[in-house]
Amino acid sequence: MIFSRRQFIAGTAALPLAGSRLARAGVPASPLPGPINPLVRRRADAQVFRHDDGFYYMTGSVPEYDRLVLRRARTLAGLATADERVLWRHLSSGPMSGFIWAPEMHRIGERWIMYFAAGPSGGGEDVFRIRTYAIACDGPDPMTGNWSVLGQFQAPWDSFNLDSTSFVHRGTRYFAWAQREPGIETNSNLYLAPLDTPLTLARDAIRLSVPTLDWEIRGFKVNEAPAVLARNGRLFMTYSASATDARYCLGLLTAPADADIMDPALWVKSPEPVFTTCRETSVYGPGHNSFTMDEQGRDMLVYHGRDYEAIEGDPLFNPDRHTRVQRLYYKADGSPDFGVPVGNGPLPERFASKADPARHLAHDGTRLLAGDAALPATQFRATGASRTPDGDAAGSATVTIAPILLPGHAILARDDGSVLLARDDGSADFRRRTRFSRVDGPAGTTRFLSAVAPDKALAAGNGAVRLAPRRDPGAGWIAD
Questions:
Q1: Contacts 24+ apart (CB under 8 A), 104-111
Q2: Alpha-carbon torsion 63, 67, 71, 76, what sign?
Q3: How far apart (Å, rounded) are the C-alpha atoms in residues 413 and 419?
Q4: Distance between CA 131 and CA 330 in Å, rounded?
Q5: What pLDDT, on a 0 to 100 scale, did the predictor assign at position 387?
Q6: What is the pTM of this model?
């Protein structure tokens, strides 16, 4: 009989950066190819970060749960094909001989430390006696150094704990993790404390969050996998909730960055999940995230999710949780806007009107508009041929422009100059009318010239989108 880790526990429990960062419009778009989702298949619980050596590093859970792995690349996209090194394998016996979960690597002092959760082998419920351990590297290069066991994290209780992360805030290094606290009938809660050494706390921990809301207790009562982002005068801590199937989702805790973050009363929980399954984009159970930046310095969300909803057997042992990445945007109040999982393929973009940057190319159903809309309704994939030199701009490409929320649809130009989102009917006429020549100019600007009217371009005007002369002020867009 196969148990999940939560079945076992359940049994025992009976603005500076706000908006779309158009301030970066003066920075030319990166010539490097961007990531394609899924970034790395069959790697769950992914941590991706960019170190000051210029490399991106990535680790995560492997489907066999038997080893700790690491890869690195010069670009985010390069992680997809980067060589992966096995740093350490579970032992033949003892408390670290069974399942291994959720590694995270951190540079603490002068050492690379990798935290992970492990349990003993032997079968039955005992394999889910999960505790947090660490290995350490003996050299400055984590890809070539020798790794050995450092020891066990000294948690407040000798109980189920996992999903540890570490961060530095105002000069103090903190440790956040998930644990089952004796006397609280949940599977796991979230805790925070400053670190004394990589394995010991400097003071008593505080309890940050207990799963009580409906979306936190679906299948199991879970708060786990904290990840921290400091932006716009606040600390944002994401966490994962509920069962690891399509109900898995992200919640958000927020605290003022200039306050004592060891005061649990200062942390405010989002009343609703901030990132959930999206059937329109076919990503199910998004969760266990981390944060990084792309090559242009823009914030990126890293997470895992499946391509399908129905799972045979225990979701925990399903191998198809893939590592995914996407842009992280910000609301007007400076809080992160996670939108929805953007789905497979190249990363979508947003296009703000150059004439009025507050207005974005967006849609309401199949109706196109230029205005303010929810983030997912402003995300489009402009995909097609590679760019070629253009007479009066940086380059051009023939593309189709497709919304992430309407699979099989694309922007289509009519003879009368109107445009709409149309479903692909497989016809040559559809292919012709949905082709646009994307002409990228300086300072991140772009235009979309219609294949059916090459002297006209997609343009914003009076809240609507239409074809207009290519030099019309509304025909300029800022790609973001």
A1: 104/47, 104/59, 104/164, 104/165, 104/166, 104/290, 105/47, 105/57, 105/59, 105/70, 105/142, 106/166, 107/51, 108/166, 108/173, 108/195, 108/198, 111/136, 111/137, 111/198
A2: positive
A3: 5
A4: 36
A5: 52
A6: 0.92
User: Angle CA(161)–CA(164)–CA(170) in degrees, nearest 5?
Assistant: 135
C-alpha span between 105 and 59 (Å, rounded): 8
**CA 414 to the chain's CA centroid:** 37
> What domains, with CATH codes, occur in the chain?
5-346 (2.115.10.20), 351-479 (2.80.10.50)
Q: Give 402: exposed, middle or buried? Use CB within 10 Å, 0-12, 13-18, 19+.
A: buried
pLDDT tens-digit map of 397-426:
899 999 999 999 999 999 999 999 999 999
Question: Residue 449 and residue 447: Cα distance in Å, rounded?
Answer: 6
The Cβ of residue 182 has, within 10 Å, a number of other Cβ atoms equal to: 10
The tens digit of pLDDT for each residue in 240-286 reads: 999 999 999 999 999 999 999 999 999 999 999 999 999 999 999 99
The H or E element that residue 50 is part of is strand 44-50
How many other β-carbons are positioned within 10 Å of the β-carbon of residue 407? 13
How long a stretch of residues is the chain? 480
- DSSP strands (E only) in 280-321: 284-293, 299-306
- Rounded distance, CA 292 to CA 472, Å? 38
- 135-164 pLDDT, tens per residue? 999 999 999 999 999 999 999 999 999 999
**CA distances, 202 to each of 135, 190, 192 (Å):** 20, 17, 11
Rounded Cα distance between 423 and 7, Å, is: 44
Phi and psi at 36, nearest 5°, equal -120, 130
SS3 assignment, position 290: strand
As a whole number of angstroms, the distance between CA 201 and CA 173 comes to: 10
Which 8-state DSSP code applies to residue 324?
A: E
DSSP assignment, residue 292? E
CB 244 within 8 A of CB 277: no
What is the percent of the chain with per-residue pLDDT over 90, rounded to a whole number?
87
Could you list the active site residues?
Answer: 45, 224
Q: And the tokens for 104?
A: 């995270």
Q: Closest Cα to residue 199, out of 227, 223, 166?
A: 166
Long-range contacts of 410-418 (CB under 8 A, 24+ apart): 410/434, 411/368, 411/380, 411/436, 411/458, 413/450, 413/451, 413/452, 413/453, 413/467, 415/452, 417/453, 417/456, 417/466, 417/467, 417/468, 418/466, 418/467
Supply the mean pLDDT for the chain: 92
